[in-house]
Amino acid sequence: MSIQPSALSTKNGIMQAATLPQFGDANTFEITEIPIPRPAAGQLLVKVKAAGINPVDYKTRAGKGQAQYFTLPAILGWDIAGQIVDAGQGAHKFIPGDRVFGLSHFPNPANAYAQFAIVEEQEFARVPDNITDDVAGAAPLATLTAWEALYDHAQLQPGQRILIHAAAGGVGHIAVQLARNTETYIIGTASAQNHAYLKELGVNESIDYHDQHFEKNIAPVDVVLDAMGGETALRSLDVLKPGGIMVSLPSMFKNDPAVLAKAKEKGVRVVWMSVRPSGERMEQVAALMASGKLQIKVDASFPLREVAKAHQALETHHINGKVVLIP
């Protein structure tokens, strides 16, 4: 038996959402009231408990990132953790009341910055009982990105050496833990104030990117996880062993001719990746989180009405871990 949306809403059939009427800065958001959507076949209606915010969110808000997939006015966000309220025809993996989390519809709009959202059943997994809603909401995009980068593209193996840029950040702190679980030697770049945190995570060597040239201070590595692009990506190629691989995340630098030319000269590979939703992989992530082998750090949480402050916090680039919205 499903729970009717009106039973969970302050107004009959109406919810609040952070709406983007036009692309612009963080103050562009408006809090609006719109009808609660209904699930179609294979879909779930989820009461959103937490929505993770990622760099792609503020890039899209500014008209970059995944903006080409949006029609204005728009509701941003892809990371969702919440409770199932209703299910469309053929959706039978979960039941109303289940706590679920996942990366929804990416890169197409998922409307996560709202009190309710429609998600595809196959893209979600159950939240472990020992994981809070805010941590679950922070997990999907960053964890799936790190997982694909290290395991699918780099095919990281025990005993290898990996350099992880922005190792204290959203993707970085997760990648460190996945690499640690693979028993690799980990080198991470971060500001000096975050080095103690990196050591706790399992980083073997920490490099302060403010005053140290990582390419002059570390021995060659098998894998680089590049979250920066541009000059950092070019310099990273200098530390790769012949036959090594750099997995690069920033889409704005995709197929950078300078990087491709230098990679060919050095005899190394470069892959630019874009994350994909996967319920099956989220189940694997859930198991790691439940066991304590993967811990997602939430640095800051904001109520929906403070979505502008949440974006501004993330854009400072001084966040350790993740930022989440609580609708």
Descriptive report:
The chain has two domains: 5-139 and 296-326, Alpha-Beta Complex (Quinone Oxidoreductase, Chain A, domain 1); 142-272, Rossmann fold (3-Layer(aba) Sandwich), CATH 3.40.50.720. Helices cover 27% and strands 28% of the residues. It contains ten helices and 16 strands. Strand 15, helix 10 and strand 16 form a beta-alpha-beta unit. It starts with 13 loop residues before the first strand and ends with a strand.
CATH fold assignment of the largest domain: Quinone Oxidoreductase, Chain A, domain 1
Element string (H = helix, E = strand)? EEEHEEEEEHHEHEHEHEHEHEHEHE
What share of the residues lie within helices?
25-40%
Number of helices: 10
What fraction strand?
25-35%
The whole-number mean of residue pLDDT values reads 93
Major sheet size, sense and barrel closure: 7 strands, mixed
- The figure for the number of domains is 2
Secondary structure blueprint with pairings:
Elements: E1 14-20, E2 30-35, E3 43-53, H1 55-61, E4 74-75, E5 79-87, E6 99-103, E7 116-120, E8 124-126, H2 133-138, H3 140-153, E9 161-164, H4 170-181, E10 185-190, H5 195-201, E11 205-208, H6 214-217, E12 221-226, H7 230-236, E13 240-248, H8 257-266, E14 269-272, H9 279-291, E15 298-303, H10 307-315, E16 322-326
Parallel strand pairs: 9-10, 9-12, 10-11, 12-13, 13-14, 15-16
Antiparallel strand pairs: 1-2, 1-4, 3-5, 3-7, 3-16, 5-6, 6-8
What attributes characterize this protein structure?
327 residues, 16 strands, 6-stranded parallel beta sheet, Quinone Oxidoreductase, Chain A, domain 1, single chain, alpha/beta, 28% strand
